[in-house]
Amino acid sequence: MMKKLVMAFAAGVATVFGLFAATYDVATSEELVAAVASAGEGDEIVLAKGNYTVSAVLALAAGANMRGTTGNWKDITISGGKACGLLTMQAGSTVSEITFAGGKGHGVEMHGGVLENCRVTGCVRAGNHAYGVGVWNDGGQIIGCVIDGNEGREHFTGIGIYQQGADALIDRCVITNNTATLAYGNRNGSDGRVGLGAALKGGLIR
């Protein structure tokens, strides 16, 4: 009897907590910025088809999720006009079906979480020891994404993706046409270009 009561109480708690998860349907840049600022663990942000512009990096909370409503990254673009980073992610978050274009620094910066069926393109970064212009991934999973057309402008490692962390994963991604406009000799005698597509300090690529 006691076991049944405990199970019933646990189920009730789960149901109550489930009621607090929110869905944010957004269709404008202003709505997107406000939704990301408000969303917490378990919440979901759903982007309507269209183009969104940000002037500061979107900081998605741990456990919050964001996706495009059409299921196709070609339909939804978040752009920074090469003036700022586009997105930071934390553990427990999933972002899917969105294009991130024209970021400055890291296009997408991952501290865990899952980036799935997205495109990261046209991001730029300058300065010595630039890691991960398209995506900087520390312990997250990048699945089925296209990472292309990103550009480094000094010594760099991993223009498309820089990855570290034992649990980090790049899975079934297309990483192509990531370039450098400036490369020159460093103290090790190389030309400063390391890992145009991806550079792995940890984790797996498959």
What's the arrangement of secondary structure elements?
Blueprint: H1 2-18, E1 23-26, H2 29-38, E2 44-47, E3 50-53, E4 58-59, E5 65-68, E6 76-79, E7 87-90, E8 94-96, E9 99-101, E10 108-111, E11 114-116, E12 119-121, E13 124-125, E14 130-131, E15 135-138, E16 141-143, E17 146-148, E18 151-152, E19 156-157, E20 161-164, E21 169-171, E22 174-176, E23 179-180, E24 193-194, E25 198-200, E26 204-205
Parallel strand pairs: 1-2, 2-5, 3-6, 4-7, 5-8, 6-9, 7-10, 8-11, 9-12, 10-15, 11-16, 12-17, 13-18, 14-19, 15-20, 16-21, 17-22, 18-23, 19-24, 20-25, 21-26
Description:
This protein has 206 residues and is mainly β. 13% of the residues lie in helices and 38% in strands. The chain has two helices and 26 strands. It has helices at 2-18, 29-38, and strands at residues 23-26, 44-47, 50-53, 58-59, 65-68, 76-79, 87-90, 94-96, 99-101, 108-111, 114-116, 119-121, 124-125, 130-131, 135-138, 141-143, 146-148, 151-152, 156-157, 161-164, 169-171, 174-176, 179-180, 193-194, 198-200, 204-205. It has an eight-stranded parallel beta sheet, covered by helices on one side. The protein has a six-stranded parallel beta sheet with strand order 3-6-9-12-17-22, with no helix packed on it. A six-stranded parallel beta sheet has the order 4-7-10-15-20-25. Helix 2 (29-38) links the parallel strand 1 (23-26) and strand 2 (44-47). It is globular. The model is unreliable at 1-17 and 184-190 (pLDDT under 50).
